[in-house]
């Protein structure tokens, strides 16, 4: 399976990158990241072109990174600017591949493809992350032992919630499915969205501390954009009241392939109520951790293990009407990957 | 290497399967097992046909099993009987493969091949397991890190006993080989049997608590039937006395491939003396555990590791006269596998 | 990648082999080693030709080794001399491959190729190891998680020392490179040598306890001989004094491939000062362990992991002028391997 390269992937949250060089693997490639003295985050291949040593173990000298093995120095564009050895000559090919890296709304975005196509306007809207007057926000990261497309499938089809998350973000099957969940989907040229509506439903365990009434109208939308960014919005209103008049939770689920079998899962969660409430902060993160780490990840990883391949369709899965959004997104992504390969 | 599919494999002991669904892997396939409300054990593929989730993590609703991921429900024949999602339609292909499972004499037998050929009359005789008036019986299970055919080889050639088991079930080489062990073998259309006779021999450490005399005549037969079921009988009589007049130990060694490199080893041990004796029970199991887990398994696994392949013959092993039974059984099994492949 | 077989590899230090049989893996093959009653070390394949059992788990009966599985006995030439089973016949092919093994200067050398070519005169000079009146000597062993040629590269290009070993055997880049390190290399038909000279340099942390002056002239030579034996000599003299007039440290770095991704690294260290000084002994070994185990090994293993292959040149590394010796040795070795393959 090929990855889509000409797209923005989340490389982490702003706090992840500092003056201490780090390495993270994206699309199979180890990537060096650090901040310049001016605070600019930079990303380059983590493999020294001389002996493939891991650059992030080297020293920063100002904005220049020094290879930890033989001391070659590279600037933030990846150009070798100093060879301390022997005649000191610097071969033309002595370069670290440089990757465009954009920091926006506390989020880092990396472009692993053709740098000339890296248009920051293509980055999805993540503004709520920094609207701290409107939202309390929590950020997290998870390692998923499965192909990123299985995580996309999980997120674009939330009908799993009553079964996988009965005690956290789902609620019991009886409460949600019994409440007559309406599932829909929409697609346009650049996105696929699945939607859920449930009238007069009991709040899920996650919502109870935030929503005081015994029942409410639940609305969820999950919008996927290529390659693997998903923006979610959940609202719970008193029965019959207009959307937005109650609790609103915006979320981000940003997936970056590590390799075909492993995925970075960066998530942001926000709420428009109990904003300055440390207990609510802790509760929101605890529910998210429980749901994503202890419920979703083991289920997705178990499916991957039982599949034994990363190509779902080769196994001829039985498809349900609720798979429309996942299949639409998979076909869209596949077409982009095919097109890029040509 | 292909596995023989149209044959009965041991799937465990009766107590292994209950109202709590479990998964065991046989011939590379994860298999779901549970009991119906009426107590009937059932076996099906553990992979939901929708997203390949592990069914054994789901809930039992009566005799119906619910997928833990999106809630599809399947009956004991593997047919999907409920889809809680969206329009609720059930695709024709929504099935779990159903495997014939027979419970007999406290033993579970599974048929991984063509279900129409699954004739329970083909199951080997294991009646002693439930003859609790005649025998004290112990049951066990072992994981072997080697191909099942290497375990067959181990069992069909017990001349390894003095070297691998001098302090447990073998006795020292001097005591057994010095006693003039006679090794024979018999084969018919459906089985291969190796036999051992040693006159006036010191009892092995395992036999000492059960057999009071200083020497005796030891008789062992080990009967293999395809694919990998071995029934053993050991008798020790006072010198010159007829077979069966002293201690008799019937045993089962039932091998079920997990994959090419790993094997389920189910064993049953029985004795016709000291039947209601808890100390003798504990001793019998302790000797078996020591012999199988700490002596045989490490030796077989070490051979497998040094072979680096599961095809013994491709390594051109040197064969001894004592290999007649193992080679006969291997050729027999290979012919069955070839025939099935056509 | 093929290994050079017709060459001497270090099989360990004399103390490694005793009357307790052991197995070590060289060039992908498990090798049995033990000493005869007369003290002669012997090496044979560790795989019994019957069922590939690990011979080193068997018993020594005099000079004869007994297979731990079925009791075949082999003499020190690898010939089967006893079959305790059945008719007792010994098949012609029942042999353990015998490997020439030479013990010299406390060092064991094994020849994994054509035994008729195993000329002990081809073994490199290691005499200092036993010159205990001239040198204090320490011996060690390290497991390296990388191809042996990456370790060769490390040793034949010591310009990495200031970066990898600033606090142990290297000294800081400023002290050494600033001191105007002169790097040279020499090659002849049977060896490649890299040389280093640094006038009036601060002693490295390792040298400080041994060399009392604030600065000195540092000379290092590192001589590689195929397949992967490296003899090093380091001298530190008062500025301007002749080589040898101060501290002299002879070292051996003897590399034996375990497989393509793992390497035995046997090292010997000696010094001509503070000979009968236990504290100096401990310090010398501590610096070596720190430098080799905690600094070199992780760096080399990290390069190997980032390379993902054992064929360096297929990755088109950028080469520096300081790579002349490493590339010369690699080409020399490659030619020998090619030649042997024909």
- Rounded radius of gyration of chain A (Å): 22 Å
The helix tally of chain A amounts to 5
Unreliable sequence segments of chain A: none
Content-based structural category of chain A:
alpha+beta
Oligomer: homotrimer
What would CATH call the architecture of the largest domain in chain A? Alpha-Beta Complex
Total discrete domains of chain A: 2
* Name of the CATH class of the largest domain in chain A: Alpha Beta
H/E series of chain A: EEEEEEEEEEEEHHHEEEEEEHH
Would you give an account of this structure?
Three copies of one chain form a homotrimer. Chain A is α+β, with helices and mostly antiparallel strands. The first copy, chain A, folds into two domains: about 10-120, Rieske [2Fe-2S] iron-sulphur domain (Rieske Iron-sulfur Protein, 3-layer Sandwich), CATH 2.102.10.10; about 135-340, Naphthalene 1,2-dioxygenase Alpha Subunit, Chain A, domain 1 (Alpha-Beta Complex). In chain A, about 20% of the residues lie in helices and about 35% in strands. Chain A is built from five helices and 18 strands. Chain A has helices at about 150-155, 160-165, 175, 280-305, 325-340; strands spanning about 10-15, 20-25, 30-35, 40-45, 60, 65, 75, 80, 100, 100-105, 105-110, 135-145, 180-190, 190-200, 215-225, 230-235, 245-260, 260-270. Chain A has a seven-stranded antiparallel sheet with strand order 12-18-17-16-15-14-13. In chain A, β13 (about 180-190) and β14 form a beta hairpin. In chain A, α1 (about 150-155) runs antiparallel to α5 (about 325-340). The longest helix of chain A is centred in the last third of the chain and has 30 residues, at about 280-305. The first copy, chain A, starts with 7 loop residues before the first strand and ends with a helix. In chain A, about 50% of the residues are buried. The interface of A and B includes residues 177 and 321 of A.
């Amino acid at each position: 399976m090929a990855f889509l390269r000409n797209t923005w992937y989340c490389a982490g949250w702003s706090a992840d990158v500092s003056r201490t060089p780090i390495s993270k693997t994206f699309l199979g490639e180890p990537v060096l990241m650090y901040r310049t003295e001016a605070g600019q985050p930079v990303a380059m291949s983590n493999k020294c072109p001389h002996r493939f040593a891991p650059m992030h173990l080297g020293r920063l000298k100002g904005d220049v990174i020094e290879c930890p093995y033989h001391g070659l120095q590279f600037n933030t564009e990846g150009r070798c600017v100093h060879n301390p050895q022997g005649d000191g000559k610097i071969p033309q090919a002595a370069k670290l591949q440089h990757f465009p890296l954009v920091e926006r709304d506390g989020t880092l975005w990396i472009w692993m493809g053709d740098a000339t196509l890296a248009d920051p306007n293509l980055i999805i809207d993540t503004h709520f992350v920094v609207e701290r007057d409107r939202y309390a926000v929590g950020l997290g990261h998870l390692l998923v032992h499965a192909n990123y497309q299985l995580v996309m499938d999980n997120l674009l089809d939330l009908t799993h919630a009553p079964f996988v998350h009965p005690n956290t973000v789902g609620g019991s099957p009886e409460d949600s499915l019994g409440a007559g969940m309406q599932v829909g989907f929409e697609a346009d040229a650049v996105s696929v969205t699945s939607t859920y509506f449930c009238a007069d439903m009991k709040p899920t365990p996650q919502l109870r501390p935030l929503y005081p009434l015994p029942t409410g109208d639940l609305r969820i939308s999950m919008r996927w954009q290529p390659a693997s960014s998903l923006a979610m919005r959940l609202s719970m209103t008193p029965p019959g009241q207009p959307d937005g008049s109650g609790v609103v939770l915006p979320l981000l689920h940003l997936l970056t392939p590590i390799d075909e079998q492993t995925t970075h899962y960066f998530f942001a969660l926000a709420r428009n109520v109990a904003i300055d409430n440390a207990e609510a902060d802790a509760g929101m993160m605890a529910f998210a951790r429980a749901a994503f780490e202890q419920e979703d990840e083991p289920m997705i990883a178990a499916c991957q293990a039982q599949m034994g391949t990363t190509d779902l369709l080769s196994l001829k899965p039985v498809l349900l009407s609720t798979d429309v959004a996942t299949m639409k997104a998979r076909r869209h992504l596949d077409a982009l990957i095919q097109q890029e390969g040509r």
